[in-house]
What does this fold into?
Amino acid sequence: MSAMLDQLDAIESEARGALDGLADAEALEKWRLAWIGPKGRLKGLLGSMKDVAPADRPAVGKRMNEVKVALEGAFEQRKASLGSAKPQAAGPMLDVTEPALDHTIGRTHVLTRTIDELIEVFARMGFTVATGPEVEDEHHNFTALNIPPDHPARDPLDNFFIDGKHLLRTQTSTVQIRAMEQSKPPLRIVSCGRVYRPDEVDATHSFMFHQIEGLYVDRQVSMVDLKTTLLQFAHAYFGPEAEVKLVPSFFPFTEPSAEMHIKMNVRGQWRWVELGGCGMVDPNVFKAVGYDPEEWTGFAFGLGIERIAMRRYGIPDIRWLFENDLRFLTSV
It folds into this structure.
């Protein structure tokens, strides 16, 4: 571990030294690609994580995140300083004689509207709303969901750890665990909220997005109940022509597991679109919350709210949902 930490210290020191000598935006961008870009030196150390002892990985991962945040912050400061050095345009910055813009009445954001619509659909099927914290502990985010300590999903580099035991939740399934800990079955809930994963931002990915998760626990619940629920949701939300198919998959917390695909009209063409995962609750999850898996069965599903909104309203880029551009916000 000491060698890996020394390498991280050296990278931070060398990168800061190289950053101080940059004089223009072109050199600054080359620095970013060389040090903190997708193929930069810091990213290149990821391959060495396999050589670190499992017990040391949280500390090394935390230090790597610290270096990444520090260099990104230094990059932004240098970028701002280079920008402020540009000559300012002469003359007034504001034309005080220009007529003021008319006041407009705001509207509900498309994501908030989508969440309200989804909750209404599932409420008509008897689901109540449950909530939980966005900062979670490892037990609720991983262990109780049947995700073992050596599972890749628990890698410190694939999560936003706050300290050695707490992180920003990666899924709203954590609310299901808390709801089962606090209530006896039968249980029928949905939970909506933000989740966090360190993904590169592009047209279809973000480091923060929203999920809606559903959980139904009772006696003799089956996959038939799961598909019927999802089919009723598809018809209610996307129209009576929508179709549903479940494609076999794997998730640690459900067995059997499936990906949910809906056939819907996307910009005039009927297409199969994956919206999330689902399956029967794994007996180990029931054991973790004190339910008897011999008496109780249940299903769970998780759907991406941004993905649903983008398909429903024909939005091609997830970034539009968070950029606060009034031209977009007033058009959907």
Remarks:
- The CA atoms of residues 121 and 236 lie 7 Å apart.
- Strands lie at 128-129, 135-137, 166-168, 187-196, 208-218, 243-251, 254-266, 269-281, 297-304.
- The two ends are 51 Å apart (CA to CA).
- The chain has a mean pLDDT of 88.
